[in-house]
Amino acid sequence: DSYGHIGGVRPALKADNFTLGRESFSEISNSPEPSHTDKLLAMEARARELREAITKNEEEGKVLAEELNRLLIDGPFPMAYGLAEGTPQNVRLQKRGEPDQLGDEVPRGFVAVLGNTAEFNHANGSGREQLAEWLTSSTNPLTARVMVNRIWQYQFGRGLVKTPNDFGVRGMKPTHPELLDFLADRFIKSGWSVKAMHRYIMNSATYRQQSTWAEPMQQEAKNRDLTDYYAQFPRRRLSAEEIRDSILAVSGRLDRSIGTSHPFPSPISWGYSQHGPFNAVYEHDKRSVYLMVQRIKRHPFLALFDGADPNASTAVRFGTTVPTQALFFLNDPFVHQNADTWAARLMKDKSTLPDQVSQAFLESLGKPATNADLSLASRFIDSYSKQTQSLPDSNSQIALAAYLRTLFGSNAFLYID
Predict the structure, then answer these.
(1) Between 340 and 138, where is the model more confident?
(2) 401-411, pLDDT tens digit by residue?
(3) Which of 218, 257, 352, 412 has the most CB atoms at less than 10 Å from its CB?
(4) Which region among 41-45, 76-80, 205-209, 401-405 has the lowest average model confidence (pLDDT)?
(5) Under 8 Å between Cβ of 343 and 396
(6) Closest Cα partner for 230 from 165, 179, 167, 171?
């Protein structure tokens, strides 16, 4: 009779077969047997208790699950990624790259061909501090040259060295080497102040040149390639981030507060794989620096207006002019929303159409509207109002917003003189 029991002490045979006795429980019980109705009522009461207990447990389970999810997402306190110095040590050479075939120990150091490596050979730590000191040393002008070239490029649209990521033999030579060295020396002496270098360049006569060729240079410009000269300030298009921020700023919707984390999915719901990777676009009205950039797929707006490649260092952005950019200013909901907000604010601040258009010119283009501009705007808005007057939601604000979209897409808005 021991079949079905696990190993160990087995119950007694009488305990196993207790219910097979000849006498029924009712006969050996002193209490009277409850009636059938009482049994049903007791069973129903017990069922209600069990259902209530199950419902209570389910509600408590939901609360605990939500708390668990919150802790998994946010943690008990804000999380920050940090780096701590470990225990530095030399490594041994791996023969043929095999980790199980170790050779001689190689002391920590720096690339000897670059020179000035004595301080690295006696480093007590990992050497990162010595590397930073070497990069920013006054005896190493390469770092300063690279930095001032980047600053110059951001201000003029092109650098003194047209290959900002390559100052080596495969890179292009500087167009003005003396100027590059002068700026690098000034940059070091100013304490590596980026703000001071911006101020110095922007206050220079070179930066304040007009965008059109001066009269004596016009004929020479026809005969020679003067792209390396700075007799005029080169006109440049706004970057993708600048275009988006400008639209939000002009419309009045720009949220200048500091960006926070994006609403990423809960970690407990992750099921991403190589063929089903994470992909999302989180829209907001904050500055474009707070846009989420993922490597596998660029943000639609940044991709359309030649934003940086998220998979590589993008030293120079090459601007393109394609029809989809013009169509963006006509059809995209982002432009429509900002144009509507801008139009509503202008109509609230100014009572007449000429005043509204004049204010729009000042805010978006930084210049007053001429009589020709006012006349053209009036004809456009009148024509648009007539064509849309049959629509149920047609009003003067819609026509004004349509005109404002043309300002967003104009060269005067997208290009800097």
Answers:
(1) 340
(2) 999 999 999 99
(3) 412
(4) 76-80
(5) no
(6) 179
> Are 181 and 160 a contacting pair, CB within 8 Å?
no
Q: Coil, strand or helix: which one is 149?
A: helix
Q: Which long-range contacts (CB under 8 A, 24 or more apart) does 153-157 make?
A: 153/316, 155/198, 155/201, 155/202, 155/207, 156/207, 156/230, 156/233, 156/234, 156/236, 157/234, 157/236
Nearest to 399, CA basis, from 345, 339, 354, 355: 339
What is the three-class DSSP state of 350?
coil
Is 250 buried (19+), middle (13-18) or exposed (0-12) by CB count in 10 A? buried
Rounded Cα–Cα distance for residues 146 and 76 (Å): 43
Judge whether 211 and 233 are in contact, CB under 8 Å.
yes
Under DSSP, is residue 415 helix (H, G, I), strand (E, B) or coil? strand
Nearest to 241 by CA among 191, 277, 291: 291
- 85 or 249: whose pLDDT is higher? 249
| Statement: residue 9 has pLDDT above 60 | no
259: left (phi over 0), alpha (psi -120 to 50) or beta: beta
Q: Is the pTM above the cut of 0.90? A: no
Predicted confidence at residue 1, as pLDDT, reads 44
Split at pLDDT 50, 70, 90, the class of 225 is low
Task: Give the residue ranges of DSSP H helices in 157-193.
Answer: 177-189
Backbone angles phi, psi at 255, to 5 degrees: -90, 110
Q: Roughly how many angstroms between the first and final C-alpha of the chain, as a whole number?
A: 100
Contact yes or no for 210/232 (Cβ under 8 A): yes
Look at strands 102-106 and 91-94 and give their pairing: antiparallel
Tell me, what DSSP letter sits at residue 267?
A: G
> What DSSP designation does 190 have?
T
Tens of pLDDT, residue by residue over 140-156, are 888 999 999 999 998 88
- How far is it, in rounded angstroms, from Cα 31 to Cα 239? 92
DSSP 250: H
The amino acid that residue 4 corresponds to is G
Tell the burial category of 107 from Cβ atoms under 10 Å away from its Cβ (0-12, 13-18, 19+).
exposed
The CA-CA-CA angle for residues 379, 380, 384, to 5°, reads 115
Q: What is the CA radius of gyration of the chain?
A: 37
Q: How far apart are CA 412 and CA 404, in angstroms?
A: 13
Across the range 204-231, mean pLDDT stands at 71
